[in-house]
Amino acid sequence: MSQLLHIDASLFSSDGVSSTLAREFVERLRARDPKMRVTHRDLGRAPIPHLDAERLSAINTAAAQRTPAQQRIAEEADRLIAELQTADRLVLGVPMYNFGVPSVLKAWFDHVARAGVTFRYTATGPQGLLTGKRAVVVTSRGGRHRDQPTDTQSGYLTTMLGFLGITDLEFVYAEGLNLGETERQHSLAAATQTIQQLAAT
Ligand SMILES: Cc1cc2nc3c(=O)[nH]c(=O)nc-3n(C[C@H](O)[C@H](O)[C@H](O)COP(=O)(O)O)c2cc1C
């Protein structure tokens, strides 16, 4: 049975444009595979705290030595990693905020990138351990940034997911959403068409 991890990062939660498009993609996948199991993390509604020294220390402390508070923090991070490890598909709804990914998504990456668990260092460099997964990023932007230096998201997400071993990655772009109603509708229609095509493969 296939397992999908669906992550939204819009501050508007399920009302975000990126969330709406990502949800459409997930629903199309579900229609093709009704038995598919879906884990949904809405980081806008339930943000992961930023990784600070207290949280990193809790995660790095041996299980037997953790205080109850450290144990709770470590279990939270372990749960995020387990969701990723068990998924064979990943769908990310990612709006552009101030030229980057939402800080809640960065916080999620900070919690799931763990040496020896999701990646490891080898003599020839780092090796991602989350192999054999397909990922789709649905990104929404007020302006147009694709293939421009202002698009810091696509490179970052390709690098970050690749670092974890997730290299089968596709992007769906909904851009120019704040450049007038005609452009917005055109862009949303194009993104929906791409979603339909991707969901059919
Ligand atoms: C706090 C904030 C920052 C934004 N920064 C950018 C930006 O740097 N570039 C851009 O093209 N659009 C920017 N936008 C517009 C959003 O990318 C656009 O409205 C997008 O559709 C939001 O997706 P969402 O509805 O899924 O949250 C910003 C919007 C907000 C709320």
Summary of the model, kept short:
By secondary structure, this protein is of the alpha/beta class. It is built from six helices and seven strands. It has one domain (3-51, 86-199): Flavodoxin domain (Rossmann fold, 3-Layer(aba) Sandwich), CATH 3.40.50.
Structural domain tally: 1
Structural class: alpha/beta
CATH architectural label: 3-Layer(aba) Sandwich
Give the H and E element order: EHEHHEHEEEHEH
Shape: globular
Describe this structure in words.
The structure is a single chain. This protein is an alpha/beta fold and 201 residues long. The chain has one domain (3-51, 86-199): Rossmann fold (3-Layer(aba) Sandwich), CATH 3.40.50.360. 42% of the residues lie in helices and 20% in strands. The protein is built from six helices and seven strands; from the N terminus they run βαβααβαβββαβα. A five-stranded parallel sheet has the order 2-1-3-6-7, sandwiched between helices. A two-stranded antiparallel sheet has the order 4-5. Helix 5 links the parallel strand 6 and strand 7 (168-174). Helix 2 (53-60) packs across helix 3 (68-86). The radius of gyration is 17 Å and the shape is globular. The protein binds flavin mononucleotide.
Give structural attributes.
about 200 residues; alpha/beta; Rossmann fold; five-stranded parallel sheet; two-stranded antiparallel ribbon; 6 helices; 7 strands; about 40% helix; binds flavin mononucleotide
